[in-house]
Amino acid sequence: GENVEQHPSTLSVQEGDSAVIKCTYSDSASNYFPWYKQELGKRPQLIIDIRSNVGEKKDQRIAVTLNKTAKHFSLHITETQPEDSAVYFCAASIHGNNRLAFGKGNQVVVIP
Amino acid sequence: NAGVTQTPKFQVLKTGQSMTLQCAQDMNHEYMSWYRQDPGMGLRLIHYSVGAGITDQGEVPNGYNVSRSTTEDFPLRLLSAAPSQTSVYFCASSYSTGVETQYFGPGTRLLVL
């Protein structure tokens, strides 16, 4: 299968707290896992990605962790700020790693 | 660089009409793709291309045609528009394959009446 599922669908956090979004995937051959951020009315933009030979990757306040055995990966945002409010999409490579399958997105709301 | 550009930004069609959504990139990317975005459905792949002259179907190809005659351009054709094709359409490109950073265009919002 090609399903990529994201949980929870909506996440509200207080400014300064951490947010965690989890994705699960079904294709054991997947080896590339990006996260995209989409602000209202804008295009999706890559914020971080991870490949299957790495367990964790960090970039300032955001990090992604990957558990290949369990087929899930998570986005971690620390010290959340109002500008982190957006929809976040996870994706996994499929079909010989030539395509991406996207999750349905998580709405993150940071409450000032 | 302009990156990935799409025209038009917004279009209203009547059922049965045809139209072409334009997508162009100036980054010399080999890989280009079309997605549609519907509320609560995420991004679904319509068609993609790994290089000029090569196209393939994605998850939801029915009702859409594509061609890739040049590296820069990847138009999406709706042959006979249906209300179910009301959506926001994003074109994306990446350097060589689908498993690299994909750069999205600004999107085309399509309403089919």
The number of helical elements of chain B comes to 0
Oligomeric grouping of the chains: heterodimer
General form of chain A:
globular
H/E series of chain A: EEEEEEEEEEE
Q: What overall form of chain B do the CA principal axes indicate?
A: globular
The number of E-state strands of chain B comes to: 11
Helical content band of chain B: under 10%
Q: For the terminal residues of chain A, how far apart are their CA atoms?
A: 40 Å
Largest sheet geometry of chain A? 6 strands, mixed
Specify the structural class of chain A: mainly beta
As a whole number of angstroms, the C-alpha radius of gyration of chain A is 13 Å
Total strand segments of chain A? 11
Q: Largest interface here, residues on each chain?
A: A-B, 22 and 23 residues
Low-confidence stretches of chain A: none
Q: Number of helix segments of chain A?
A: 0
**Share in helix of chain A:** under 10%
> Mean of the pLDDT scores of chain A?
93
